Amino acid sequence: MATAHNATLPIILRNAVRASPSDVRRKNRSLIFSLLFPRHQYSRADLGRLTGLSRVAVSDVISDMIDEGLVVETGTETSPSGKGKRATLLGLNTAHVRTISIDLSQDQLIQCAATDLLGRPVQRMEVALGPDNEVSLDAIVQIVDQLRSELEDDRFIIGIGVACPGAVKDGVVLESTQLGWRNADLAALLESRFHTPVTLVNDSVAAMLAEHYFGQAGANLLFIKNDRGIGSAVLVDGVPVVGDNHASGEIGHISIDPVDGPPCPCGKRGCMETLLSARELRSRMRDLDTAHRTQVVEDAGRRFAAALAMPIGLLDIGDVCIYGPADVINMAFLESAQRELDAMSSSQFHQHTVIRRCQMGADITLRGAAIAAVQAYITR
What we know:
The chain has three domains: 23-75 and 87-92, Winged helix-like DNA-binding domain superfamily/Winged helix DNA-binding domain (Arc Repressor Mutant, subunit A, Orthogonal Bundle), CATH 1.10.10; 98-207 and 364-379, ATPase, nucleotide binding domain (Nucleotidyltransferase, domain 5); 216-357, ATPase, nucleotide binding domain (Nucleotidyltransferase, domain 5). Helix content is 38%, strand content 22%. It is built from eleven helices and 16 strands. The radius of gyration is 24 Å and the shape is globular.
């Protein structure tokens, strides 16, 4: 009888293309930067051990990033024995380069800021819109132009990051029901005007990046942004999930009452955004007393958790972070949502999922857009 043997069959790669030196260098640069970001310090030897890169490769990348003003020598490490030469530590130089960050997600407001390498605003500007004013491309160009004119030195701007509600891809706003845009090539417009690379990112993804790097999140997160509308973003093993059509996280337009729900600008009825957004809940609570306001919020928390139970069970995510105004995303909402989610998803094989309120503050989307621009610059 013939004996079957497990064998590894050779894989023939047709038309395989070897990575160019510039590709390798870009990957090395991105890897080293990710280890230092946002506040870590390592010696060159540490970076070599952590990345597996040679001493020459590490020194080459570090030398370039020091010349660009991205990295700085921060001091020397403490030797446990107190003997021998102490290694020089490296960290990010947050004070040198700048990004321009734009937040288009807020109601009747365009926010723009010059930010440092960690996305912290160092100079800002706002344009308040009237109730009948729409966000226009010209208004965005004007606010960036004005902010840049007031900077002491704009030579070190490495990119422009824009956070926009809706589905975005390759610098184009494919569709944003909040802004009323479809196929708006915002990145091309800004790049042609300012000759600076532009990174366009969904506003929920931007906010999630800020929560991931500077908030309480770990490598796996379901982030919900509930204010003007409802959007979400998913982080798995530290990587944002984009989706086949770059529309991952558009839960605001999932219908939870397709028959009797109110019409939505997307064309359906009963979308979550039309029933449970902060704007809608505030409108519903406007003339109610405290007890009935609490009832509205608790009911919203239950319906919210019921809608999230399926993706949470599918992805087995234990951290749900909700960003929104305190009068809506409050303890009544969170406790009601937690009870409902526990009742729907608790099992022996699923870890307990915690629903919590985001503590990052009003600049979360601005910071996230800046982080996206920095990451794009590093890998460009």
